[in-house]
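Same chain as my last thread, 708 residues:
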Amino acid sequence: DDGEEVLDLLIEIIGGVDLPIMDNRSSDPFVVVKFNRRIIHQTSYIPKNLNPIWTLKTKAFFLFQVKAKELFQDIDGLCFEVIDYDAYSANDLMGAVKVSPRFLYKATEERREFRLQPLMSKGSIVNHNVKGKLALRCRRATPYDKEFLKQYKIDMVKEARKDPIKLRGVAMIVKNVGTGGGGYVKTVVEKKRKKETIGTETVVKYKIRPEPDPQRKTQTTWMTKEEIDKESFNESRVWLDAGSGMLAKVFLEIINCKGLPNLDVNVGLDRNKTDAFCKIVYEDCICSTDVIDDCLSPRWMPWMNRAFVLHMTHTSSPLFIGVFDYDSSLHTSVESHDPIGRVNVDLSKLRADTEYLLTYQLYKEGTKISDRKPVNGTITIRLRLEVPDERHLVLSCLQPPPTIYVNDSQKRDFLCVKYTCKGYDNERFDTNVILSYIEELLAYMNLVVYLKDALINLLLWRGNHRVDVRIPVKPSEQNADGADALNDMTMKERLSYLVERYTKKTTILLPIHSMTLFFSAVTLVEKPSLLPSYIFGSIAWLLIAVMGFRHNNPDPWDQPKTFRDIVEILLVGEPLEPPPTITKNQNKKEASAYRKKWADKIKELEKNSVEEKRRAVREAREEAEIDSAEVDLGTESKGGLNLNPLKPFLLPVQKNLGKLLECVRFMKNVMLWEECYFAFWITCASIILGVFSLFIPWTFLVIWSTRL
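reply #2:
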C-alpha cells in the first residue's frame, strides 16, 4: 500500500481481570487510551472492583480513525493505561498495556487478554510483570457501527441539553489531523470565555449557561460580568407554581451564588469547576433550579428555571434552600450530589407586599459554631409574600404546624432533600456533633449578660419608654410681633401658634418596667392571693419587654413585628401604618456600634468565667497538692482518644441533645419574637389568664384544699 489507507477501527475495552489492590481492600479502575502520547479516549471508573466490566454506558466502545502509515510509524501502537481513581488525591497508575500496530491492523474481533506491565515516566514499559490483565476486542468498523455510535452520541447530546453536565469533558469525537499528525480522539471542552475588542478597549465576555435568552440569543449568548450582574436582577419570566396551601403565596427567586468552593478540582479535566444548582424544599413541594456548570459564582438569569411560587399552609413553616455541586448519574460511584451549604429562611417575620433582597452566608457543615467561617460562599435570593387575608395568617398559629412527609423517586434527589432540610445525617454517631450541641447549649449562657443589664435597669429606674412632651419656655422676641396677627387666625391656628410659641417639644424616657415592678411588688405584699394572676401577667410582661428591647436595635432588619401591628391586623385586616422602606446600609454605623457593645459585654463575661475557672482549679490543686495535673478548661478534646467504643452510650446522648436543642431553639425564637405570631398568642393567653385569675378566690381554695 501507499500508506494512504484510512483505518476505521472499533475498539472495545471489555474489562479487567484480577487487577491489583491500590486502596485498602479494592480499587476504582478506569482506562485511558493514548496514541502518540496523546489521550484519545477515557472510560468511566468502576468503583471498588478488581474485575471491572465496561459497557456502552461507561464508555467501553470508541472509534479510532487513522491512516495506516501514521499507525505503523508509531511502533508502540495504542497504549492502554489502567488507573485507580482517587477523589481526594492523585490517581494511581496500576499498569499499562501496549497493543502493536500489527495487531490493530489484523484484528478480527477476537477477545484478547493482555497482561499489565509497569509504565515508566517516559512511557517505556519494563519487562517484569505486574498483577492483572486487560481484556480488549478490536475490528474494522462497519457503516452500521459508525451510524450507531453517531446516533448514540446525538441521543446523549439531547439528554445533555436537559442535563448539561452529563457529557461535559466526556464526549469524544474522532478527527483526522491530516498528513502532519496522527488521527486521535479529542476531548470536547466547551469554551466558556472570550475576548472582544470594542473600539480601543478589550473586554472579556462569558458564555451564558445553560442557555441564552430564547428571545435575544444574539445579545445574551456572550455577556460581560457587569451585564450578567445587571441582567440577573431583572424580573423573572418563568415561574413554577408548587404546593397545595391556601394561606399565602411565597414568591422566591434564586438570584446568584458567590465564592463557592471548587468541588470538581480532582474530577476529570483541570478546567472543571463546581456545577452549582439549588434545591428548594417548602412544606409539600420540592423544586430545583437549572444547573450552572463550571462556575464558582453562578448567576441564574430571568429566563432560567429560578423562580417559584410556593403556596403556604402554615406561617411557621420554614423555607429550606440547599446549594449543591451537580454530579452526573453517569458516574455510578456517586450516590449523591455534593452539598455546599444550606439556609433556613424564617417567613413569619416578613411583611406582606414587601420585596426582600436577602444574602445569606453558606457555612461548612459539621463544625462547631466557634469554628464556622463563611468559606463556602454566599447565596442571594429575592422574596415577596402575597397574603389574601392577613387575619388567617395570624389565626393559623393557633394550631401547631402540620407534619409533612415528602418523597422522591430517585435516591440521589432524596439525599439532596434530606440534606437541605436536616443537614448532614446527625443520626450517625459523631463526636463533633456532640461537641457542637454542647457548645450551642453553652452559648445560651450569654443570656446572663442581657438579664444582668435588664436587672440593673430595673433597680436603678432607668428609662426605657420614649415619650414626647412639651414644656413651657419663654417666648422669643423675634416672634413678639406675631401677636398682632392673631386676629386674622382661626381658633385652631391660634391654639397651634400659642403652643409653638410658649412650649418646646422634648423627649423623656419613662421607667415603665420599673414602675410596673414596683406596683406589682407592693400590691403582692398586701394581697398574696394575686400571685397566680401576677405569674401569668409576668409572662406577658416579659414577652412585651423583649419585643421593646428588640426594637431598640437600630438595625431595621432585626426589628420584629410588634404586638400592636398584629392587633391591628386582627381588628382591621392590615396594619394601619404602611411597612417601612429600608434603604441600603440604613443605620449601619449605629447598628455596628450596638452589636459591638453587646459583643464586648459577652467577651468580658467569658473572660471572667475563664478566670473563675482557673482560680477554682488553682485552689483545687493547692488543696490536693497536685501540681502536675493538666486540666482542660474547654469543651474541645485535645487528645487522640478514640470514642468509638463508647458509641452505644454516647449515641443516645447525641440524639437526646438534638431533641433538647430543637425545643430550646423554638423557645428562643418565641421569646425573641422570631416566631412573632406564636409570641403574640402566648402574650394574649397570658393576659387573659391573668385577668381571669383575678376573679378566682385563691385564698378560699387554698384553705379548703389544705383541710382536705
